[in-house]
Amino acid sequence: MKQLYILITIGTIALTGCKDDTLQEPKAPVDRVRLELTTHYDGAPFDLNTVHQTQEGYTVQFTKLNFILTNLENGSEILSDAMVYKFENNPSLIWEGVGDFTKFSSLSGNAGVDTNENHLDPAGLALTNPLNIQNAGDMHWGWNPGYIFLMVEGKADTTAAQNGVFDMNFLYHVGKDPLLRNFSFTDLTWTRLNDSLHSATLSLDMSKIFNGTNHDVDIKLERTSHTMPGQEPLSTKIIENFLEGLTGQ
Amino acid sequence: MWTKIIVWSLFSTILFACSKDKLFLRETMTPYELDIPSHFPEMPIPVDNPMTVQGVALGRKLFYDKQLSLDNTVSCATCHQADQGFSDPNQFSVGVNGATGTRQSMALVNLGWQTHFFWDGRAGTLEEQILEPVPNPVEMHLEWPEAVSRLSADPLYPDMFYTAFGEEGITKEKTSKAIAQFLRTMISGKSKYDIMYKVQNSLPLTADEQVIMNSITVEEWAGMDMFFSLTGGDCLHCHDGPLMQVNLFSNNGLDATFDDEGRYLVTGNMNDLGKFKVPTLRNIELTAPYMHDGRFETLDEVILHYSFGITQSSTIDPMIEFASQGGVQLDPQERELLKTFLKTFTDYEFINDPDFRAP
């Protein structure tokens, strides 16, 4: 009799119990990689609060640094289609996602968005796509001009007295198809963070924005560009100086 | 003998069938299909607060319910009035016992796409934001335990919460989730501007939209050009795209020093002094007064501010490029065109939608 009760009880549990607690095989962790960024100003620590000197002796403070990298790959191995970096959101993280670090000792890609994607409906992209308008936000001008590839903003004291009072703002919004530039890094060093996560770090020297090998930018004379007609030369300087400052580690 | 077996079988079934009834209830919950305009991005919905017809209906009732205030005089809708674009015509909203705050009530529209809430962005989710006004002494001034107690004693709410969440019990979190569901349905994307946006981007128009398109005036198109021109209104940096805003904080040149420190109060970062959330311009014609402190009563005053009234300060937004000369220097005709365009953001279908009115 007792056995019958036990049998009924077990049968009832088996028949009516929830499926939510079905045992599942433990899944193997997915390999992930993280692309990090160390930002400095000619070797000095960089933040949106720090002040620096340009080659002309101006005191500057940056207030915004955003950029878009796309088509990151190593030959036929694709790491990510798009990354949107915003310093104010997370200064040290460019992107994190699924990937096998062993395949990316070298990395190439674009600073900006190529013409095929630059003029797509930014609202029509998947919500998980960094280029969706919900994620890109202020990095998108409109369908025709497309995305802002690089956004650098700040304020400067360009007076002779250099009394620490910022007398002007600078603003460089670089975009449009002809300003797309590519880059490549070799011998990237990947560091193990845990069993399934590795990171590589890029370095960005913000002093190069004004003081590149080929392009000098004098804030006093060249304080703004939206890459409008007539402003392309300054935007070209800015994005090429930016890429000179961006290096692998 | 058989009686005992039957009784034991029934007992076991009741004992171990745990949440079968809950599963059944969840199956009867009806997913809410959002009516998202084709030119809008997908709306991110929190995984722990899926949209249901029952949840939205509950949220709508709660939104208009004055029981959620200490003396039963204030509801969410008191400070977010439909005819005012779900904002408040008062410079500062009047709460329980006549208390007033220091910031203007923000318009409720397209909240599902926002990433920060309140003028200083101190809430990161809509659900989090909704928890604040009820106990706030200058708003509804009712502690949540008392609010929950009132709702639990109500003849309708316990069943409504049960059908909305599939389980017994009322909590402040469920209350917030239900209101958030309702607010996410409040989507505005059928204004004249939406037609203009589609035309500019070569998106197809429906027959109804084509009729509206034909009614758009030369002045409205010229105002649009003025709005987006870098040498005109220069408004596009902060107000762009289908949502007519970007999710960021800005000091738009209102003051040299800051009585209200804005975003700084949240981040403690000196660079955020005097910065406030950039609001959407949708239905801006209806949502006066303007700015975080409601200092401007009319759109004319706002446009004059950006034309000649910009004040320099340590954190002024670099995107206000003409700050050094006081603003963008629009002449009276240009200002009028700009105002004409701003009125194309009014979405009458949204404002008059009976689903957003008191149940």
Description:
The complex is a heterodimer of chains A (249) and B (359). In chain A, 15% of the residues lie in helices and 39% in strands. Chain A has 249 residues and is mainly β. Chain A has one domain. In chain A, strands 3, 4, 5, 7, 8, 9, 10, 11 and 14 form a 9-stranded mixed β-sheet that branches. In chain A, strands 1, 2, 6, 12, 13 and 15 form a 6-stranded mixed β-sheet that branches. Chain A starts with a helix and ends with a strand. Mean pLDDT of chain A is 90; it is low at 17-21. Chain B has 359 residues and is mainly α. Chain B has 2 domains: 18-187, Cytochrome Bc1 Complex, Chain D, domain 2 (Orthogonal Bundle); 192-350, Orthogonal Bundle (Cytochrome Bc1 Complex, Chain D, domain 2). Helix content of chain B is 37%, strand content 1%. Chain B has 15 helices and 2 strands. Chain B has helices at residues 2-16, 20-28, 53-63, 76-79, 126-130, 144-153, 157-165, 172-184, 192-200, 207-215, 218-228, 264-267, 299-308, 332-342, 348-351; strands at 249-250, 276-277. A two-stranded antiparallel ribbon of chain B has the order 1-2. In chain B, helix 3 (53-63) packs antiparallel against helix 7 (157-165), helix 11 (218-228) packs across helix 14 (332-342) and helix 13 crosses helix 14 (332-342). Chain B is globular. The model of chain B is unreliable at 10-20 (pLDDT under 50). Chains A and B meet through helix 1, strand 8, strand 9 and strand 10 of A and helix 1 of B.
List the helices and strands and how they pair.
The complex is a heterodimer of chains A (249) and B (359).
Chain A (H helix, E strand, L loop, with lengths): L1 H15 L15 E10 L2 E2 L6 E2 L5 E16 L2 E10 L6 E6 L8 E5 L3 H4 L14 H4 L3 E3 L3 E12 L10 E8 L5 E5 L5 E4 L2 E9 L18 E2 L6 H14 E3 L1
Parallel strand pairs in A: 1-13, 10-14
Antiparallel strand pairs in A: 1-2, 1-6, 3-4, 4-5, 4-7, 4-9, 7-11, 8-9, 9-10, 12-13, 13-15
Chain B lengths: L1 H15 L3 H9 L24 H11 L12 H4 L46 H5 L13 H10 L3 H9 L6 H13 L7 H9 L6 H9 L2 H11 L20 E2 L13 H4 L8 E2 L21 H10 L23 H11 L5 H4 L8
Antiparallel strand pairs in B: 1-2
Helix pairs in contact in B: 3-7, 3-8, 9-10, 11-14, 13-14
